[in-house]
Structures are given as C-alpha cells and as structure tokens.
C-alpha cells in the first residue's frame, strides 16, 4: 500500500525575485507538496505521533520561503531539503512552487518549479 500526505495550493507571501522590486514589494506564491510516508500506524492507532502534522509542514514551508533568495528554484529546494531532513522516513515525493502573476508581459496564471524525488 502506498500512502501520502499532501498539502494542496498553500498560499504564501514572499520577497523572491531577480528584479529588485520583487524583493521589495513581494509576490504571492502557491505551494503543493505530496510526500510518500508510511501511514499504517497512524491509520490503525489514530495517533498524531504516527504521522506528519500537515500544519508543521506548512510552518516549515513558511520559514524557508521567508529566507531571502533570487530564484523560486532555490526556495523550492530549501523547502524540500528541510522537510526531508526533518522526516527521514519520507520515501519520495513532489513539490510544486508557483509564483502567481510573475512580472512579465505575457498573461499567465503563474510560473512554477517542480521537484520530484
């Protein structure tokens, strides 16, 4: 049986960008995370100690995205690294970080970086 924990479209504000005004004004980001994690104990014991608290995953993401950087690639990697270091039982996953309304002339709903491991 494969089991996952998923955070879907968490809204985050951060000052990430190559352009200086992006780092001053900031932008809205959207984060989705799906991690493979052994959940059998949580399913049978009904104990929070047997799983990953999704609120804690959100806290990790918020802490990492608030660190200064130029690229969403860097922010996404730091989020992934922090989560997998905190929870070595994770056997794989994916992370999608989207900058909502990036400052370009084309009309699009966002630009994303996806990491799968």
How would you describe this structure in keywords?
117 residues; alpha+beta; four-stranded antiparallel beta sheet; 4 helices; 4 strands; 30% strand; elongated
Low-pLDDT segments: none
The average pLDDT score comes to: 95
Identify the overall geometry: elongated
Structural class: alpha+beta
Biggest β-sheet: strands ordered side by side in the sheet: 1-2-3-4
Gyration radius, in Å: 16 Å
Would you list the SSEs in sequence order as H and E?
EHEHHHEE
Helix content: 25-40%
Total strands: the figure is 4
**For the report, how would you describe the main beta sheet?**
4 strands, antiparallel
Ends distance: 19 Å
Q: Per DSSP, what share of the residues sits in E-state strands of 2 or more residues?
A: 25-35%
Tally of contiguous helical segments: 4
Structure description:
By secondary structure, the chain is an alpha+beta fold. Helix content is 33%, strand content 30%. It has four helices and four strands. It has helices at 20-25, 40-45, 54-65, 72-86, and strands at 4-14, 27-36, 92-99, 111-116. It has a four-stranded antiparallel beta sheet with strand order 1-2-3-4. Helix 3 packs across helix 4 (72-86). It is elongated. The two termini are 19 Å apart. The relative contact order is 0.22.
In short:
The protein has 117 residues and is of the alpha+beta class. Helices cover 33% and strands 30% of the residues.
Topology:
Blueprint: E1 4-14, H1 20-25, E2 27-36, H2 40-45, H3 54-65, H4 72-86, E3 92-99, E4 111-116
Helix pairs in contact: 3-4
């Amino acid at each position: 049986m494969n089991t996952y924990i998923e955070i879907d479209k968490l809204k985050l504000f951060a000052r990430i960008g190559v352009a200086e005004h992006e780092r001053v004004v900031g932008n809205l980001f959207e984060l989705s995370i799906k991690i493979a994690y052994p959940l059998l104990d949580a399913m049978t014991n009904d104990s929070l100690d047997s799983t990953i608290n999704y609120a804690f995953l959100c806290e990790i993401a918020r802490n990492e995205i608030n660190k200064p950087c130029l690229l969403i690639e860097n922010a996404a990697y730091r989020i992934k690294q922090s989560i997998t270091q905190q929870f070595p039982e994770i056997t794989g996953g994916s992370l999608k970080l989207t900058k909502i309304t990036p400052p370009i002339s084309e009309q699009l709903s966002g630009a994303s970086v996806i990491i799968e491991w």
